[in-house]
Amino acid sequence: MKNILVVEDDKMIASGLVYALEQEGYMVFHCKTINEALSTISIKKFDLAILDMHLPDGMGFDVRKMLTDTAVIFLTVDDDESSIIKAFEGGADDYVTKPFRIRELLARVKRTLASNTDTKNTTITIDSVTIDIKAGKVYKNGELQELTALEYRLLCVFAANKGQVLTRTQILDNIWDSVGSFVEDNTLTVYIKRLREKLGDSLNIETVRGVGYRVG
User: Fold this and answer.
1) How many CA atoms lie within 13 A of 184 on its CB side?
2) What does the alpha-carbon distance between residue 89 and residue 69 come to, in Å, rounded to a whole number?
3) For 98, which DSSP code?
4) pLDDT per residue as tens digits for the range 37-84
């Protein structure tokens, strides 16, 4: 269950928003002031915060500064370009002007949470091998490994299909899509052999006779 912090001093807006979010299955914590929000943040971790820009004791930016690894949607009556730019420069993932349609806001919440989750998931671990997708690097037992572009793509194909048997044709199709050049069936055998040599016992590339390969 995702934890959502709502910092909004307008009782009508807050009650409707909290109810709608709870109906969607989220765990919601409502605060009316910055001080309340900071006290809550100190004891609870949130996946998303919906912050009113103008609060009785300050600005939503003051709360944003105290949130780490938390997606943020700002709510505000300000719809001028400078305010929107300032919000995004201040770390907003989205910006919604009042009055707003609740269904639209719920859709934005769902999208923002999904986007934030995707951003965090930048590594894949398979057996004792870790792939840093963002950096394009591969580690074996914590040590950086030097792979060619095609070897790296081949490893990513196995990681994306962990535990599944892949035919040689399926693997070749994925490599073709990535590098844009023809890879022969015999060449695939060579690259799998090289991958086994470089990663050793850290990655078990199982040959499924007459079908293809499976990892994990």
Assistant:
1) 3
2) 16
3) S
4) 999 998 888 999 999 999 999 999 889 988 877 999 999 888 777 878
